[in-house]
Design brief:
By secondary structure, the chain is an alpha+beta fold. The protein is built from 6 helices and 16 strands. Strand 7 and strand 8 form a beta hairpin. One of its GO terms (biological process) is signal transduction.
């Protein structure tokens, strides 16, 4: 069942890359969304328009959830749903950086079953189907097996290191590194390039869905900040943060985190 869906997502991601790279990020038209929801560019909209035409046409029974499409409750009645971020890392795209990605996933009854994260300017295509492992450019990948937190390299934004996020206010020691695209951070953990990642704010499903499956199929662990499995296609498509790593670093991080967010950290 997942294999045909995965190939569909791969084909769609490659086409998305062709469209997005026709635009120059620094000269593409850009708008700010209402309520401080961040920027959107003409490239985001062009990619979204193509995906919204291509994917539902290929799977007419599937629901649709995308950052750049007005949400509809219709998806809640569907067993399977596309969860799409046309360009994850729009600010990076607009600045002319190469660290933005297309993030495409399919969830069935709340669980992601096929996923792709594609960085066209870096020629990196991460993919996974449930029960079939994870790949980078068709080569199998797996997470880091490190089990010592002090030696770990963890992808996280600086506000996540504030004491209120940690039990007894004790911030653990590890090397913090940052990449702007949340999807790319998750893919790098799946690849074993970094030992873990976390984001402690309430996070949109489309930023996380593809990375969740790719990490789990790379033999890693992925959950919300309270340690609960991630479930998708929620009525309000937000999750209580994300922690992802190999089993050793995951356990060390999760046991020291406060399970509920005291505020917002990017």
């Amino acid at each position: 069942m997942p294999a045909p869906d995965l190939q569909l997502l791969i084909d769609a991601a490659l086409e998305a890359g062709k469209i997005a790279t026709r635009f120059s990020g620094t000269t593409a038209q850009r708008w700010d969304k209402p309520d401080g929801a961040g920027p959107v560019t003409e490239a985001d909209l062009a990619v979204n328009a193509m995906l919204e035409q291509m994917l539902p046409a290929a799977r007419p029974g599937y629901g649709w959830l995308s950052e750049e499409t007005e949400d509809s409750a219709d998806r809640l009645s569907k067993d399977r749903v596309f969860i799409i971020d046309p360009i994850d890392g729009t600010r990076s795209f607009a600045e002319g950086s190469r660290t933005w990605a297309h993030s495409l996933a399919i969830a069935e009854q709340g669980e992601v079953t096929a996923a792709v994260i594609y960085l066209p300017l870096r020629n990196l295509l991460y993919a996974a189907a449930k029960g079939q492992g994870a790949t980078l450019n068709t080569e199998k990948i797996r997470v880091s097996e490190l089990g010592v937190l002090e030696s770990a390299e963890v992808l996280a934004a600086k506000p996540n290191m504030q004491p209120q996020h940690w039990r007894q206010g004790q911030v653990p020691e590890f090397k913090r590194i940052y990449r702007p695209s949340l999807a790319y951070r998750m893919a790098l953990v799946a690849q074993g390039r970094f030992d873990g990642m976390m984001t402690l704010r309430s996070s949109w499903e489309w930023d996380i869905a593809a990375g969740d499956l790719i990490i789990r199929e790379a033999l890693g662990r992925c959950s919300d900040r309270a340690g609960l499995p991630l479930r998708f296609n929620n009525a309000i498509p937000r999750l209580n943060g994300v922690i992802a790593a190999g089993s050793g670093v995951y356990g060390l991080l999760s046991e020291q985190l406060e399970p509920e967010s005291p505020g917002i950290a990017p």
